[in-house]
Every structure is written in C-alpha cells, then in structure tokens.
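PT: before anyone asks, these are the final sequences, not the draft ones from last week. 444 residues across everything. Please model them as a single complex and drop the result in this thread when it's through.
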Amino acid sequence: MLDFLQVSGQQDLISVISSLIWLLFLMIFFIYPSFSQRLQLSYILRDLERRLQRLKVMRDEVRGKTVEVLRKYSGDGVKVDEELDKLLLSFMIAPESMDPYGIVYKLEHIVNTWEDVFEEHVKLICTKADEAWSKTLTNLVEVARGMDYLYRVVRHYYLLGRRTANIYIVLQIQMLMPQIMEIAEAYRRACYAFTQGQPIGDGVGVLAVAKLVEGLEKKTYQVAKDTIVHEFEMDGRRVFVLRAAGPGGAVGRPADGLLKILESERDKVKAVIMIDAALKLEGEETGKVVEGIGAAIGGIGVDKFKIEEISKKMNIPLYAFAIYQSIGEAITPMKKSIAKAADEVVEKVKKLISSKVDEGFSVIVAGIGNTVGIGIS
Amino acid sequence: MLPRRRGVEEIPQPLTHLKCLECGTVNSRPFTGGDYVFKEVEERCPKCGASKMKIIGIYVEEERKTP
Ligand SMILES: [Zn+2]
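LR: through. Structure below.
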C-alpha cells in the first residue's frame, strides 16, 4: 500500500480507493470473462421466475374452475381431482415419420382414438351432463390440459436453464414469453367461455352457415361423428351445408362428411366453399372477411389433406372465406365484429354460388369451427 | 406512449340478443347459463308481451379503441 502511494505520487485517499475499485472491476472482467453473462443470466432468470409465477396462478385458476364445474356434473363417489389429473397428463404419440407414406391416415387413427377416449373419460366423470354438455366439458378439460402443459414446458426450461446456468436455454424461452403469456391469457378466458357454453370466435364459420340455412325448408341428417348436413334447394341449385352439430362444443369431422356427400353426388358437385376463422396479422381488423382459394381448415392437417386430395381427384374447385381474428379472440367469447362478419359471409356465399355453380348442379358449403353455444338453425 | 402492462383482466361477459317471434322486436340481456344461438326461449317480449323469443346472437360488445 505504501509503495503504491509512492508510485502514484501525491494523491488523497479517496482517489486511491477509487483507482483500486476500478482495478478490481477490470480484474473481474479479465479473469472472469463470463461475468457479464452471469449477471444477465441472473436477471433473465428472475424475470422468468416472475412470469412463471403468474403462469402458475393462471393454471391454478383454470384447474380450479374446471374441477368446480366437473364436480357439479359428476356422479357420486367420483374423485374428480384424481380423474382430472389423469386427463391433464394424458398424451398422444405421433406416428413414426421415417417412412412418411400413409402417415396422414395413421395420424388420423391415433388422434380419433385419443379424442374418443378423452371424451368417454369425461363422460364417465360427468354422468349428470347431457350429450351436448359433456362435449363442452370435454373442450373445457382440453383447455385446462393446454394451460397445464404450457406451464409445465415453461417450468422445464426455467429449471433446466437455472440448473445448467446456460444463458442460451433461458434466452430462448424468454424470447417466447410474450406470446406464451398471451396464449395463457386466452386459455384463461376460454375456460370461462366453456364453463358457461358461450360461443367463441372460432365458431364464426359455423354461425355463418347456420345463418345461411336459417328459416329455409331443408333436410337435416348426420353424416359423420358430430357432423351434420342441411340439404336444400336454392335458385335451382342443390346446396349441402356441412357443419358440426351444436350447441355442445364440437368441431366434427368435416372431411368425412364431405367425402360422404361426394360419394352420392359425384360429379354433380361443382364447387366446395369453406368458411373458417383465420389468424389475422397484428394490426389487422378483427372480423374482416377475406376471400381466397384452398381448404380453409385448421387442426392437425388430416381434414385439410383429405379435402385437398378428393377435390384434386374429382377436379372440384375449393373456395375459401376467412374471418380474421387473433389467437385470443378465436378461443374467447365471440366479439360483435366477428358475429357481424357472419352476416357478411352469408351474402358473399350466396353471390359466389350463383356465379360459380350453374342451375341443376350441386355445391357444398362447409362451416368450420367449434360449435359451442351455437344451436342448429 | 408505452403500452401499459396488463394485470389480470376482468373477463367481459357477452350479451344475449333475442328476437320476438310475434313482432320481430330485438332486445338484449346479459348471457345466462343454458343460452345458445337459435334457441327458442319462453321470455316475455318487452314490446308486445308475447312469450316466445328466439336467441339470434350471443356476443361481447367491444369498446371502441383508438388505433
Ligand atoms: Zn313482440
């Protein structure tokens, strides 16, 4: 210390101390190059922890709400908590894709089985619920499952990042956090919509076709699981309106329904019109109706594949109407702008039919989406 | 202005819009359990007093936001 003072000449104690501190900092950065990264890591981890905590609160809220509703409809002696946990952790193993030939049908088989088992399980818990309600309750459990899975994935990356002190792991999850929190909030709202059976934004496609056939004289029958057809005459054209059966929450099996209709109508069908909710880009208007070409249907892709395949084989054009909404709006109670879009679509579909399908021929109009809260018109 | 951080938000409740099957008057009320679109309900029309109404829409009124 004395030597140092002599070397540095006439300085007071404070400047000596500050020089020392500077030296110390420089040493830290030279000897320990990952120091800044460590600092950043602890900052990100703290941020993640805070959001994970919020996510946990949301998950517990959704789970609690789901248990509450299931209990209301459950039979005596059913351990709702235990049964719900089984459902929340249930999983599906996607088929092997090393040899992709025929994978769509394998996937379809697995998904259909899973959905059926899931639904049966919910029905077993909620013996007091009628057919429509047990479908809506199945949707509710699916929402709870989605929320639970989201929480578990985020927790996994948080803990993994903390344990390995790996900034790249926590960075990845931190980058995705804004979208994840948005989806979580949507799940939370969806849970409230399903517990009460309120129509959601995704149901706009079904609502549109229901409005198209409202008050008309028609033949209604089931073509596939949860899927119905309204058949009627419009200005000399045979119209087949395909939709999932409501008012319970269901999306049905539109591709199977379409195939059934085509089996009997064959080349009389001159167009397939599909109406579905579509994800808007940020900044776009909710409830905007846009037109396009192709199979307007989401999900895992099985229905889309089957519809495209048959329409190509039979050379039937696919027309699509999409109603813009955000991911949150799609699974939360329907907004007015979306409900109004259904009326707009009805007019556009009528115009399209009269311009693209000649008299004496047939057209299939498919309303795609979840039917929760939307009855049969 | 920076967007404000959102806390846990209140969940907006939809309105049920009913149309009288007699006179066609449309009125609305808060959603109640069991409502679904196209359901016929036994409720009194506020205008003509008929007891059959049909639900023609269930949706959330959105507040006008400045873009
Ligand atoms: Zn009236």
